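## retry 2 of 3
previous attempt timed out at serialization; input unchanged, resubmitting
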Amino acid sequence: MNSLTRLVRPHLSPRYEAARRDFVNAPRTWLVTGAAGFIGSSLVETLLELRQSVVGLDNFATGHRRNVDAVVGADAERASRYRFIEGDIRDADCCRAACAGVDYVLHQAALGSVPRSIRDPITSAQVNVDGFLNMLVAARDAAVKRFVYASSSSVYGDERTLPQVETKTGRPLSPYAATKVANEMFAAVFQRTYGLETIGLRYFNVFGPRQDPEGPYAAVIPRWVASLLQGDACHIFGDGETSRDFCHIANAVQANLLAAVAPSNATETAYNVACNESTSLNQLFAMIRDSIAKSFPHVRAFSPVYDPFRPGDIARSQADISRAGEGLGYRPIYRVGEGLPLVVDWYLGEHRNPAKETAE
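## retry succeeded, writing output
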């Protein structure tokens, strides 16, 4: 049983249950870009579990070979349905080769992180915009049935209305946010101009197993788990009242699969993927600390360190998910209070029983 399956409870939305049955009964061929990353590898894992044929594409800029290996394991039959391509979406020929014979594209490849984009806006734009266009063109030319892509809650920028609704965005606050706004515009234009059906998914702080705790741009949850286990300081930018709508990976996987088979009248748009909850960083730290303290009581004494606010950060985010519910049949499988302790337990298992290092 894989890492995502172990966490998913059976209370799925009716449309998601029906879609999963349909996939098993009538397998398709899928391309997942960013397949060595956290979200991409989770998508590959679920698709293989549902007996689909999958092509994975990644250049290992931020993904890991260990994630490619983890989704297949020692299952020869599953491996026979998975073809991995090491390549870069900035290479148009590579994109064309990856799209050949594919029914659906789930495009996750990108350079994430607001701070990274502020330090290096050119590379972020080359990957997130030029690479995105290469994928759109390749999918169009391969007559792909639908192109589902990762957008971001960063498109809301300085819009202060909560919860955030898809029709009301503000000014982007970072080069990364600007690239995601451009993605949504290009996707809509490709549908109107070329007939390529597209759906964007505005992820809100996705977390789950295999999310990398290392590096300067690591997401907050795995970074804090690792810091607490190592006895290092957990840094909060600002006063800790900055809030986010944290979304378990099972919710993001569900949204992608539902988007691939949603009615055509649900396309040429973007949907929030979240839980319609708001958790402050102070609350999040306490939840992570308390979960770890069940196994390592000494961490109860730890407190966060507060640093200045970072440029480009949104003060608060909380998603209205009614459009995703109506258009896609989306319903959160895990809310943060349910999913976070399970994910912390996964990291604790990795901490107690570290896997053998895989060459990167």
